[in-house]
Amino acid sequence: MAEAFIVDAVRTAGxxxxxxxxxxxxxxxxxxxxxxxxxxxxxxxxxxxxxITGCVMxxxxxxxxxxxxAVLASNLPNSIPAVSIDRQCGSSQQAIQFAAQGVMSGTQDxxxxxxxxxxxxxxxxxxxxxxxxxxLGNYKSPRLExxxxxxxxxxxxxxxxxxxxxxxxxxxxxxxxxxxxxxAIAATQNGAFKNEIVPINVDSPEGIISHEIDEGxxxxxxxxxxxxxxxxxEGGTITAANSSQICDGASAVLIMSERALKDHGLTPRxxxxxxxxxxxxxVIMLEEPLFATERALKRAGLSINDIDLYEVNEAFAxxxxxxxxxxxxxxxxxxxxxxAMSLGHPLGASGTKLMAxxxxxxxxxxxxxxxxxxxxxxxxxxxxxxxxx
Length: 389
Known about the structure:
The protein is α+β, with helices and mostly antiparallel strands. The chain has a domain at 273-388: Thiolase/Chalcone synthase (Peroxisomal Thiolase, Chain A, domain 1, 3-Layer(aba) Sandwich), CATH 3.40.47.10. It is 35% helix and 21% strand. It has 13 helices and twelve strands. It has helices at 26-40, 66-73, 91-104, 126-133, 142-147, 155-166, 170-189, 223-227, 258-264, 288-300, 318-327, 340-343, 350-365, and strands at 4-11, 15-16, 50-54, 82-85, 110-118, 200-204, 207-211, 247-257, 270-279, 309-312, 369-376, 380-388. The strands form two sheets. Strands 1, 2, 3, 4, 5, 8, 9, 10, 11 and 12 form a ten-stranded mixed sheet that branches. The chain has a two-stranded antiparallel sheet with strand order 6-7. A hairpin with a 3-residue loop joins strand 11 (369-376) and strand 12. Helix 1 (26-40) crosses helix 2 (66-73).
């Protein structure tokens, strides 16, 4: 079987809800990262055979195949097709896996995986809420209701269930949140994100400025300020501080075959080593990365000790904490440049975003293997293992 290689990976700096990226149409965010991929790499972009774009809220400005619209808004040739996919929070990680599978199957040589999500302009849950409000239907069909009676699938509920199952305290969650900000601060100040962030020109009271620093980082974060944030439910442990931040952004990963690399004289940065996706309990929902990782490691013939870095999406603090506890991971290798609690979680754009951050961190630290996983709606999880070249 042919192998799939990562040539480049980029992302926008995260924008807070109503923040610096709020005035940028999501299609134009996607176009910006597509242009960056083409500008940074010496190949004919007309040779891209497909663009696969993850996007969760495919409504309003993110409808009508948002990935294709971003191609048309970019400087890429309009001959490049695109498809938009939804695997909830794992949408653009699945885009990477679909792109890699296209290359590994030998049916494609160059595929661009990407993600787009403006949570300011197309708010989370807005597509479902619109239809329910207008009495046009509910995502729960009669048969789904029969299978899960009275259950409205909730990630917040799943997060609290994880806390109880694995015995965490609010202090445990808040400490991880503080660490996320501290790591993100250090990475920003040390220039660790410089190679992955695509600057975006935005309007401001001072005129046009370049947005290139993740807006969600709290540079003054302390345990006291994090613990001062109110609980989201009475008697619970989850707060806005120990949960992922609402975020606007886009990201992209260029994937090629060995043949394409030779034809264009390009040097790959990493090899796709394993692609795994699994599903389990849709009620606790957020636990599946634990079991998906076990399967991925077994199929790859690796142990967790072979992995130099891991990105476990910080949808909620108990997710990476439960993952570490179950897998036996080293906390020092986890989300080394911060995670979604500090950098933001732009839903469908997070998969390719995490890959850009993980790849750069792996190169900067001289590691060999890195593993990326995230919890997803419906009790699903993707795992992608890469090998630095």
